[in-house]
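Module 6 notes. Inverse folding takes a fixed backbone as the condition and produces residue identities as the prediction. Think of it as a translation problem where the source language is geometry and the target language is the twenty amino acids. Below is one complete input and output pair. Work through it position by position during the lab.
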Protein backbone atom coordinates (compact mmCIF):
# COMPACT_ATOMS: atom_id res chain seq x y z
CA UNK A 1 0.00 0.00 0.00
CA UNK A 2 2.87 2.36 0.83
CA UNK A 3 4.49 1.66 -2.54
CA UNK A 4 1.35 1.90 -4.67
CA UNK A 5 0.15 5.12 -3.02
CA UNK A 6 2.58 7.12 -5.15
CA UNK A 7 3.81 6.07 -8.57
CA UNK A 8 6.67 8.53 -8.17
CA UNK A 9 7.42 7.54 -4.58
CA UNK A 10 10.61 8.87 -3.08
CA UNK A 11 13.36 6.52 -1.96
CA UNK A 12 12.10 6.96 1.61
CA UNK A 13 8.73 5.43 0.73
CA UNK A 14 10.37 2.73 -1.36
CA UNK A 15 12.63 1.79 1.54
CA UNK A 16 9.62 1.63 3.86
CA UNK A 17 7.86 -0.67 1.41
CA UNK A 18 11.02 -2.76 1.10
CA UNK A 19 11.10 -3.30 4.87
CA UNK A 20 7.56 -4.72 4.88
CA UNK A 21 8.04 -6.87 1.80
CA UNK A 22 11.31 -8.31 3.15
CA UNK A 23 9.45 -9.20 6.33
CA UNK A 24 6.77 -11.01 4.32
CA UNK A 25 9.54 -12.83 2.44
CA UNK A 26 11.08 -14.05 5.71
CA UNK A 27 7.68 -15.42 6.80
CA UNK A 28 6.64 -16.81 3.39
CA UNK A 29 9.81 -17.31 1.30
CA UNK A 30 7.92 -19.04 -1.54
CA UNK A 31 5.19 -16.41 -1.94
CA UNK A 32 5.30 -15.73 -5.69
CA UNK A 33 3.33 -12.48 -5.53
CA UNK A 34 5.62 -11.09 -2.84
CA UNK A 35 8.73 -12.07 -4.80
CA UNK A 36 7.29 -10.21 -7.81
CA UNK A 37 6.68 -7.14 -5.65
CA UNK A 38 10.20 -7.32 -4.24
CA UNK A 39 11.76 -7.77 -7.67
CA UNK A 40 9.83 -4.80 -9.01
CA UNK A 41 10.83 -2.67 -6.02
CA UNK A 42 14.52 -3.49 -6.41
CA UNK A 43 14.14 -2.56 -10.07
CA UNK A 44 12.76 0.83 -9.01
CA UNK A 45 15.64 1.17 -6.53
CA UNK A 46 18.08 0.63 -9.42
CA UNK A 47 19.35 -2.76 -8.28
CA UNK A 48 18.61 -4.89 -11.37
CA UNK A 49 20.90 -7.75 -10.29
CA UNK A 50 18.92 -8.33 -7.10
CA UNK A 51 15.72 -7.86 -9.10
CA UNK A 52 16.72 -10.60 -11.57
CA UNK A 53 17.41 -13.04 -8.71
CA UNK A 54 14.03 -12.45 -7.06
CA UNK A 55 11.94 -12.49 -10.24
CA UNK A 56 13.66 -15.62 -11.56
CA UNK A 57 12.81 -17.25 -8.25
CA UNK A 58 9.18 -16.16 -8.69
CA UNK A 59 9.17 -17.58 -12.22
CA UNK A 60 10.53 -20.94 -11.05
CA UNK A 61 7.98 -21.14 -8.23
CA UNK A 62 5.03 -20.48 -10.54
CA UNK A 63 4.80 -24.26 -11.22
CA UNK A 64 1.53 -25.05 -12.99
CA UNK A 65 0.17 -21.50 -13.02
CA UNK A 66 0.83 -19.07 -15.86
CA UNK A 67 3.19 -16.26 -14.80
CA UNK A 68 1.89 -12.72 -15.25
CA UNK A 69 2.77 -10.47 -18.18
CA UNK A 70 4.21 -7.98 -15.68
CA UNK A 71 6.65 -10.57 -14.32
CA UNK A 72 8.03 -11.27 -17.79
CA UNK A 73 8.22 -7.56 -18.65
CA UNK A 74 9.99 -6.58 -15.42
CA UNK A 75 12.40 -9.51 -15.56
CA UNK A 76 13.29 -8.65 -19.16
CA UNK A 77 13.89 -5.02 -18.17
CA UNK A 78 16.09 -6.08 -15.26
CA UNK A 79 18.15 -8.26 -17.63
CA UNK A 80 18.49 -5.34 -20.06
CA UNK A 81 19.71 -3.08 -17.27
CA UNK A 82 22.41 -5.60 -16.39
CA UNK A 83 23.44 -5.63 -20.06
CA UNK A 84 22.25 -9.20 -20.71
CA UNK A 85 20.10 -8.54 -23.80
CA UNK A 86 20.03 -12.21 -24.83
CA UNK A 87 18.48 -13.19 -21.49
CA UNK A 88 16.04 -10.28 -21.79
CA UNK A 89 14.94 -11.47 -25.23
CA UNK A 90 14.70 -15.08 -24.07
CA UNK A 91 12.50 -14.00 -21.13
CA UNK A 92 10.23 -11.96 -23.38
CA UNK A 93 9.85 -14.77 -25.91
CA UNK A 94 8.98 -17.17 -23.09
CA UNK A 95 6.28 -14.76 -22.02
CA UNK A 96 4.82 -14.68 -25.52
CA UNK A 97 4.31 -18.44 -25.36
CA UNK A 98 1.75 -17.86 -22.60
CA UNK A 99 0.55 -14.40 -23.69
CA UNK A 100 0.81 -14.29 -27.52
CA UNK A 101 -1.27 -11.12 -27.88
CA UNK A 102 0.34 -9.09 -25.12
CA UNK A 103 1.36 -5.79 -26.75
CA UNK A 104 3.77 -5.10 -23.87
CA UNK A 105 5.72 -8.26 -24.67
CA UNK A 106 5.90 -7.54 -28.41
CA UNK A 107 7.13 -4.06 -27.55
CA UNK A 108 9.71 -5.61 -25.22
CA UNK A 109 10.91 -7.84 -28.07
CA UNK A 110 11.40 -4.69 -30.14
CA UNK A 111 13.39 -3.00 -27.37
CA UNK A 112 15.61 -6.06 -27.00
CA UNK A 113 16.15 -6.42 -30.75
CA UNK A 114 16.96 -2.72 -31.04
CA UNK A 115 19.52 -2.94 -28.22
CA UNK A 116 21.11 -5.90 -30.01
CA UNK A 117 21.39 -3.92 -33.25
CA UNK A 118 18.66 -5.88 -35.04
CA UNK A 119 16.74 -2.88 -36.33
CA UNK A 120 14.53 -4.62 -38.88
CA UNK A 121 13.44 -7.22 -36.34
CA UNK A 122 12.77 -4.46 -33.79
CA UNK A 123 10.56 -2.58 -36.26
CA UNK A 124 8.67 -5.79 -37.05
CA UNK A 125 8.05 -6.39 -33.33
CA UNK A 126 6.77 -2.86 -32.77
CA UNK A 127 4.49 -3.18 -35.81
CA UNK A 128 3.13 -6.47 -34.43
CA UNK A 129 2.25 -4.75 -31.15
CA UNK A 130 0.54 -1.94 -33.07
CA UNK A 131 -1.33 -4.46 -35.21
CA UNK A 132 -2.83 -5.91 -32.02
CA UNK A 133 -3.51 -2.51 -30.43
CA UNK A 134 -3.18 0.31 -33.01
CA UNK A 135 -2.54 3.24 -30.67
CA UNK A 136 -0.53 1.57 -27.94
CA UNK A 137 1.73 4.30 -26.61
CA UNK A 138 5.10 2.62 -26.02
CA UNK A 139 5.21 0.63 -29.25
CA UNK A 140 4.22 3.62 -31.39
CA UNK A 141 6.79 5.82 -29.69
CA UNK A 142 9.55 3.22 -30.01
CA UNK A 143 8.65 2.56 -33.65
CA UNK A 144 8.72 6.29 -34.37
CA UNK A 145 12.05 6.81 -32.65
CA UNK A 146 13.58 3.86 -34.52
CA UNK A 147 12.27 5.14 -37.87
CA UNK A 148 13.74 8.58 -37.11
CA UNK A 149 17.10 6.95 -36.43
CA UNK A 150 16.78 5.32 -39.86
CA UNK A 151 16.17 8.73 -41.46
CA UNK A 152 12.41 8.30 -42.01
CA UNK A 153 11.22 11.56 -40.43
CA UNK A 154 7.70 11.59 -41.89
CA UNK A 155 6.68 8.14 -40.67
CA UNK A 156 8.71 8.47 -37.49
CA UNK A 157 6.94 11.64 -36.35
CA UNK A 158 3.56 10.19 -37.40
CA UNK A 159 4.14 7.11 -35.23
CA UNK A 160 5.12 9.21 -32.22
CA UNK A 161 1.98 11.33 -32.70
CA UNK A 162 -0.06 8.11 -32.75
CA UNK A 163 1.25 7.28 -29.27
CA UNK A 164 -0.74 10.24 -27.94
CA UNK A 165 -4.08 9.13 -29.37
CA UNK A 166 -4.73 6.54 -26.69
CA UNK A 167 -2.63 8.20 -23.99
CA UNK A 168 -2.83 12.00 -24.48
CA UNK A 169 -0.48 12.70 -21.54
CA UNK A 170 2.20 10.19 -22.55
CA UNK A 171 5.26 11.98 -21.20
CA UNK A 172 7.92 10.69 -23.58
CA UNK A 173 5.92 11.64 -26.65
CA UNK A 174 4.92 15.08 -25.34
CA UNK A 175 8.54 15.81 -24.43
CA UNK A 176 9.94 14.65 -27.75
CA UNK A 177 7.31 16.30 -29.94
CA UNK A 178 7.36 19.50 -27.90
CA UNK A 179 11.12 19.82 -28.38
CA UNK A 180 10.76 18.88 -32.05
CA UNK A 181 8.17 21.60 -32.71
CA UNK A 182 10.12 24.12 -30.64
CA UNK A 183 13.22 23.45 -32.73
CA UNK A 184 11.29 23.56 -36.02
CA UNK A 185 9.72 26.90 -35.06
CA UNK A 186 6.06 25.88 -34.84
CA UNK A 187 5.41 27.82 -31.64
CA UNK A 188 1.65 27.17 -31.57
CA UNK A 189 2.01 23.40 -31.78
CA UNK A 190 4.93 23.48 -29.34
CA UNK A 191 2.76 25.43 -26.92
CA UNK A 192 -0.09 22.93 -27.20
CA UNK A 193 2.21 20.00 -26.46
CA UNK A 194 4.41 21.56 -23.77
CA UNK A 195 1.49 23.10 -21.88
CA UNK A 196 -0.13 19.67 -21.75
CA UNK A 197 3.17 18.18 -20.56
CA UNK A 198 3.48 20.80 -17.83
CA UNK A 199 -0.14 20.39 -16.71
CA UNK A 200 0.34 16.62 -16.38
CA UNK A 201 3.86 16.58 -14.92
CA UNK A 202 4.36 20.03 -13.34
CA UNK A 203 6.32 18.46 -10.46
CA UNK A 204 8.99 17.10 -12.80
CA UNK A 205 11.91 19.51 -13.47
CA UNK A 206 12.22 18.66 -17.18
CA UNK A 207 8.53 19.48 -17.78
CA UNK A 208 8.95 22.85 -16.08
CA UNK A 209 12.13 23.66 -18.00
CA UNK A 210 10.61 22.85 -21.38
CA UNK A 211 7.52 24.98 -20.68
CA UNK A 212 9.78 27.78 -19.41
CA UNK A 213 11.91 27.43 -22.55
CA UNK A 214 8.80 27.91 -24.69
CA UNK A 215 8.10 31.16 -22.84
CA UNK A 216 11.68 32.30 -23.38
CA UNK A 217 11.61 31.61 -27.12
CA UNK A 218 8.12 33.12 -27.51
CA UNK A 219 9.27 36.18 -25.57
CA UNK A 220 12.35 36.57 -27.76
CA UNK A 221 10.15 36.48 -30.87
CA UNK A 222 7.68 38.96 -29.39
CA UNK A 223 10.41 41.41 -28.37
CA UNK A 224 10.91 42.43 -32.01
CA UNK A 225 7.36 43.82 -32.33
CA UNK A 226 5.61 43.85 -28.96
CA UNK A 227 7.77 44.59 -25.93
CA UNK A 228 4.85 44.41 -23.49
CA UNK A 229 3.96 40.91 -24.68
CA UNK A 230 7.62 39.89 -24.50
CA UNK A 231 7.84 41.06 -20.89
CA UNK A 232 4.62 39.24 -20.03
CA UNK A 233 5.97 36.00 -21.51
CA UNK A 234 9.33 36.31 -19.74
CA UNK A 235 7.67 36.95 -16.38
CA UNK A 236 5.16 34.12 -16.91
CA UNK A 237 8.06 31.78 -17.69
CA UNK A 238 9.84 32.78 -14.48
CA UNK A 239 6.74 31.86 -12.47
CA UNK A 240 7.08 28.37 -13.95
CA UNK A 241 10.83 28.04 -13.36
CA UNK A 242 12.66 30.87 -11.65
CA UNK A 243 15.99 29.07 -12.17
CA UNK A 244 15.73 29.29 -15.99
CA UNK A 245 18.59 31.68 -16.65
CA UNK A 246 17.75 32.64 -20.23
CA UNK A 247 14.47 34.14 -19.03
CA UNK A 248 16.32 36.42 -16.62
CA UNK A 249 18.73 37.38 -19.40
CA UNK A 250 15.96 38.05 -21.93
CA UNK A 251 13.99 40.11 -19.45
CA UNK A 252 17.09 42.00 -18.35
CA UNK A 253 18.12 42.83 -21.91
CA UNK A 254 14.59 44.03 -22.67
CA UNK A 255 14.60 46.26 -19.58
CA UNK A 256 18.01 47.72 -20.53
CA UNK A 257 16.59 48.61 -23.95
CA UNK A 258 13.65 50.31 -22.20
CA UNK A 259 16.06 52.17 -19.88
CA UNK A 260 14.44 50.55 -16.81
CA UNK A 261 17.87 50.18 -15.26
CA UNK A 262 17.18 49.15 -11.61
CA UNK A 263 14.87 46.33 -12.73
CA UNK A 264 17.32 45.33 -15.46
CA UNK A 265 20.21 45.09 -13.00
CA UNK A 266 18.09 42.92 -10.71
CA UNK A 267 17.24 40.43 -13.48
CA UNK A 268 20.75 40.38 -14.96
CA UNK A 269 22.34 39.87 -11.55
CA UNK A 270 20.23 36.73 -11.12
CA UNK A 271 21.39 35.50 -14.53
CA UNK A 272 25.02 36.17 -13.60
CA UNK A 273 24.56 34.17 -10.38
CA UNK A 274 22.94 31.27 -12.26
CA UNK A 275 25.46 31.35 -15.14
CA UNK A 276 28.71 32.87 -13.80
CA UNK A 277 30.71 31.74 -16.84
CA UNK A 278 28.39 33.27 -19.45
CA UNK A 279 29.82 36.59 -20.72
CA UNK A 280 26.44 37.88 -21.88
CA UNK A 281 25.42 38.59 -18.30
CA UNK A 282 28.48 40.76 -17.80
CA UNK A 283 27.92 42.51 -21.12
CA UNK A 284 24.32 43.48 -20.37
CA UNK A 285 25.14 44.40 -16.78
CA UNK A 286 27.95 46.59 -18.11
CA UNK A 287 25.47 48.30 -20.42
CA UNK A 288 23.02 48.79 -17.54
CA UNK A 289 25.64 50.31 -15.25
CA UNK A 290 26.89 52.50 -18.07
CA UNK A 291 23.36 53.79 -18.73
CA UNK A 292 23.00 54.69 -15.04
CA UNK A 293 26.34 56.51 -14.96
CA UNK A 294 28.14 53.91 -12.83
CA UNK A 295 31.26 53.81 -14.97
CA UNK A 296 33.51 51.88 -12.58
CA UNK A 297 30.93 49.09 -12.22
CA UNK A 298 30.40 49.12 -15.98
CA UNK A 299 34.14 48.87 -16.69
CA UNK A 300 34.58 46.01 -14.23
CA UNK A 301 31.75 43.93 -15.70
CA UNK A 302 32.68 44.63 -19.31
CA UNK A 303 36.29 43.64 -18.69
CA UNK A 304 35.24 40.32 -17.16
CA UNK A 305 32.80 39.76 -20.02
CA UNK A 306 35.52 40.48 -22.57
CA UNK A 307 37.91 38.01 -20.94
CA UNK A 308 35.34 35.22 -20.77
CA UNK A 309 34.05 35.87 -24.31
CA UNK A 310 37.58 35.89 -25.73
CA UNK A 311 38.47 32.66 -23.95
CA UNK A 312 35.29 30.87 -25.05
CA UNK A 313 35.35 32.15 -28.62
CA UNK A 314 32.15 34.22 -28.41
CA UNK A 315 33.44 36.82 -30.84
CA UNK A 316 30.32 38.99 -31.15
CA UNK A 317 30.06 39.37 -27.38
CA UNK A 318 33.79 40.07 -27.10
CA UNK A 319 33.56 42.74 -29.82
CA UNK A 320 30.64 44.50 -28.12
CA UNK A 321 32.40 44.46 -24.74
CA UNK A 322 35.52 45.90 -26.35
CA UNK A 323 33.53 48.68 -28.08
CA UNK A 324 31.87 49.74 -24.84
CA UNK A 325 35.18 49.67 -22.97
CA UNK A 326 36.73 51.90 -25.62
CA UNK A 327 33.84 54.35 -25.20
CA UNK A 328 34.78 54.61 -21.53
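Target side of the pair, the amino acids:
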Amino acid sequence: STLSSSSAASDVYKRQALKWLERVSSLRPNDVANLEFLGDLYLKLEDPTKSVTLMRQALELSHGSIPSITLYINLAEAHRLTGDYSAALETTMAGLVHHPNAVELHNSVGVCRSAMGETSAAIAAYRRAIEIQPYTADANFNLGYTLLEQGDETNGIAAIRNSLKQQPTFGKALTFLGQYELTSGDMNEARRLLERLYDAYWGIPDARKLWADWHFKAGALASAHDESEAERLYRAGLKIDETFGELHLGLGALLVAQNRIPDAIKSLSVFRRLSPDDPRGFLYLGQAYLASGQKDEARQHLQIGLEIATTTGLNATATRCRELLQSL
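Reference fact for the lab report: Residues 1-9 have pLDDT under 50 and may be disordered.
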